Amino acid sequence: MTIPLVVGLDGSEASLAAVDWAAGEAARHGVPLHLVHATAGDLDAAGPIGAATERVRRDAPTVPLTSEVLHADPATALVGKGHDAFALVLGSRGLGDLDAMLLGSVGLAVAARAECPVVVVRGAAEHREARFGSVVVGVENGEGSATAVAFAFREAQVRRCGLVAVHAWTAPHDAHATAQAPSWALEAHRRPPPQVLDDALRGLTDRYGDVPVTRRVIEGPARRELLAAASGADLLIVGAPRRHGHPGLQLGLTGHAMLHHAPCPVVVVPRT
């Protein structure tokens, strides 16, 4: 049995936008869609589930669809559903959130604790509706982004679009650069930034030979460079390592910034 793409609903416009995005994603990957409405308060099953079901039946009639209403803490319920999900999809903010730019508390808790990829559907319609033909993935030094890069290649392939791999780096505060000796080359234990990117892509460029890849190695803060790259993207993908000694993920400053401010849908992919 194929594991489903799970969407969390709360009745907000943002969650309905997440349903629309998820319906297209389920169709692209050939996976079923499962709608979940969880609340610790009074249940109103007909509202969120009914409206969402109508949208899926209208826009993606061939996608297998199921739904579920749970009387439980929303974040805990959704994290539980993520144990056996292709991905969890959430709106950019929920009912009662004060700032339309910031991710709600439930979304942030799910992104920090889920064991599967978590998608937060952000941005204007042009970003949500895949009009740019580009997927962006952030590549960090080390192995933390390996699973995210593989996920990004699959997304680019099913979308038949290009992949932009971004590695942003900053020199240590005590490094001294010259025209002949860039700062990163002064530390023997550090890989040159272009090599970091090449190592992350090695093997995948052959496996996904039909995916055009653009490499970007940029000196600057990762948060700034990824947000800039995402301005012309349909999807931004970042990795998240496991927290030592605890379940869930370590989102870090970059992950938090993308979830709160990215101009397009964001996927946080846990390292496996």
Give a structural overview.
- It is a single chain.
- This protein has 272 residues and is α/β, with parallel strands linked by helices.
- It has helices at 13-29, 46-59, 74-81, 105-113, 125-128, 146-159, 193-201, 204-207, 222-230, 252-261, and strands at 5-9, 33-39, 65-71, 87-91, 118-121, 134-138, 162-169, 213-219, 235-240, 266-270.
- The chain has a 10-stranded mixed beta sheet with strand order 3-2-1-4-5-10-9-6-7-8, with helices on both faces.
- The protein is globular.
- The model is unreliable at 95-102 and 185-189 (pLDDT under 50).
The CATH homologous superfamily name of the largest domain equals HUPs
Mean pLDDT: 86
According to CATH, what is the topology of the largest domain? Rossmann fold
Most strands sheet: 10 strands, mixed
Please report which band the strand proportion falls in: under 5%, 5-15%, 15-25%, 25-35%, 35-45% or over 45%: 15-25%
**Order of strands across the biggest sheet?**
3-2-1-4-5-10-9-6-7-8
Shape: globular
Strand-and-helix sequence, N→C? EHEHEHEHEHEHEHHEHEHE
Q: From the coordinates shown, what is the CATH architecture of the largest domain?
A: 3-Layer(aba) Sandwich
Q: What's the number of helices?
A: 10
- Note the gap between the termini: 22 Å
Beta strands, count: 10
